[in-house]
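Lab notebook, bench 4. We co-purified these components, and the gel suggests they stay together. Before we commit to crystallization screens, I want a quick structural picture of the whole thing.
Request: model the full complex, all chains together.
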Amino acid sequence: MTEPGTASPADLRRAQQREQLLRDELPRVRAAALAWRNGLGALLAGLLGFGLVKGRTDVGQLDERWAATVGVVLLLALIAGTSGALLLLRAAHGRPAVRALAKLPPGPIADRREAAATTRALRMGIAATLACTALLVGGVATTWYGPGRAKPVLKVIIQGEAVCGSVRETGGGKLVLQTDTGRRTVDLNGVTAMLPVDRCA
Amino acid sequence: MTEIPYEETTDPEFAGAAARTFAVETYPDGLLLRGPCPRCASVIEVALVDEVFSRGLLGWRRGSPAPPPAPEPVEPVICTCTEAHPGRPDGRVGCGAYWLFAVPASPS
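Here is the predicted assembly.
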């Protein structure tokens, strides 16, 4: 073992600083977690509460595939948000647990471990909450800009021929359909079947 | 029993006494020194670790983190007891004694 020599006042200050940093570490990281929890909670509440995140009121107006995408994105946002909230709560208030006394490390080491675990939870909680926000914004943007669901069309059978298109006008025993090849006027007297369908095959 | 007043002081004998009486425990997080303060005789625990939480917590590590550096071979140590020592400033702990501690190369 080396001879340590005599300590100087600079050594005293260094040791005091280290002791204070370690003694205050857990309260500091808890306070930081509390601030992040409140800040991110306010951010999400602001986004949702003030209607900044608001798209079509009914996702059912979206095209089916886009609506499914929005559903998946919102599910991921829910998972990320829940994880983030739990992680931030864990960081701010600790993990409720019962541990065997015999397995507890000495106080300074236990505090250091808890501070390290709290810091990890805080970082992951921040990342998850921000991911939740991004997913929410993405989901709502999709409802804004995604293509709407196609309007129902009418398929009529006339003289053995199927004519399919959206209804433009009716009257005088006539039906005008907008088909893929243009407008088509159908005499209702000759119609043998009429079916509403989602799209023309 | 007379209370020892707080006084920031050191003595070459402090280091020798601590070297003889302190136990060094190794943990994945660092070292723990445990023994009686050479001045006030209160049993104290001092953690020697390499990392501490800082406000700049968003310094996300890129890639795998580097292994923590080994403790300095000689670390300054202060008494960290919580016994009453008249004259101790607010926010401080201990009796004021400080000394250098030679960290064993491979503590048991």
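The radius of gyration of chain B is 16 Å. Worth comparing against the SEC data before the next meeting. Residues 1-48+70-108 of chain B form one domain.
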